[in-house]
Amino acid sequence: MIELIEEEISKLPLGASPKSLYDPIRYIMKLGGKRLRPMLTCLSYSMYKNDVEKIVKYAAGVEAFHNFTLMHDDIMDKAPLRRGKPTVHEKYNINTAILSGDVMLVKVYDMFLSLPADQLKEVLRLFNKTASEVCEGQQLDMDFETKKKVSENEYLGMIRLKTAVLLGFSLEFGALLASASEEDRKALYDFGVNIGIGFQLMDDLLDVYADQKKFGKTVGGDIVSNKKTYLLIKALESKNKELNKWLSAKKFDKRKKVAAVTKIYDSIGVRKLTEEKAEWYFDQGYKCLEGINVSGKGNLIKFAKSLAARQK
Fold first, then answer.
1. Virtual torsion, Cα 31, 311, 284, 45, nearest 10 deg
2. I want to staple 180 with a disulfide (CB 3.0 to 4.6 A). Which of 138, 184, 209, 265 is the partner?
3. CATH class of the domain defined by 1-115
4. Distance CA 151, CA 83 (A)
């Protein structure tokens, strides 16, 4: 299935001229990644029908939207790397990255235009809702940068919007295209949202504890920028004086700060707390699928569990 997705992504109708506008789009789409969202759409569809090749182009559209958000998020986060390579704004420039992202979103709507007439309106309604929520989540994430205190619930609500709802949409999208029942569509959406929160919590963990070569992003970047991740929020509950000293420091050696804060996390047991919270959300997600009775459900669960294990 991944081969079908990669083939479809390689021939997306992105435009040709000016090259300076479209080359950055081809660049970010070729950086790879897990292709998680289109895989979820295809797996969801294949639970009900055997002709997944008919909807791969729409699944690729979901991946294009995801990469549009990454292109703009990287600008806002001033991120130097994406999947181990320079981010679009680093390789080209900020203005080009903004404009290429804009046209990328327009192209996603173009990809959806060939949807069956009886499904198009519902797909666009769900997609627009999801796209708005992703933007809301990104704004909350930026608001948290200047907010003195962020609660655990506020953080979980933010990552639900910024990350998880797109996984929920990806799954419901596939089910909708397969004409699944509303009950199954909702169950798949809820499954996606729950595992999406779990994946983001594991991603927070990887930012601190991952192997740099495998992670593809700068390890410790969240610590350096005082980003309010689940780990930092839980660590702040301990009122650790050394942690507060590092958070308030204006000038510091990045490596020393990452090492010191990681040591504090270790002493508090933040890693275990984060793993347990992520596992809780994964378990909640699997429970959402209990009422779905189709043979292909096992493939979806197997795929989700393999990704969760790979992130540890």
1. 40
2. 184
3. mainly alpha
4. 30
